[in-house]
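Hey L., structure's done. Input below.
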Amino acid sequence: VDAVTVCAADDCRTLAAHSCFVVPNGVPHVDAEPRADDTFTILFVGLFEYEPNADAAEFMVEQVMPIVRRALPEAELRLVGRTTHRVRRLAGPG
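Output:
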């Protein structure tokens, strides 16, 4: 590659890239306070009209979330983004 862009100087050192440029994140890091409740939410943001994202959404709902819920029954998955009927049909509790 001609250049690598990262968001932290540590990444440049780790990559040891010849042309490495640091572009800091546009939003400052804020330490989050621990949540008072026991919920666990997984957020998947994507354009679900794009077939690979729709495939991934189905995989998450049908294959991954049953495993997650065995360990964390209160876990939720939120699919956020422009969608189609294929992904909307995945809606349900959690």
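The longest strand covers residues 41-45. The chain has a mean pLDDT of 88.

-- N.
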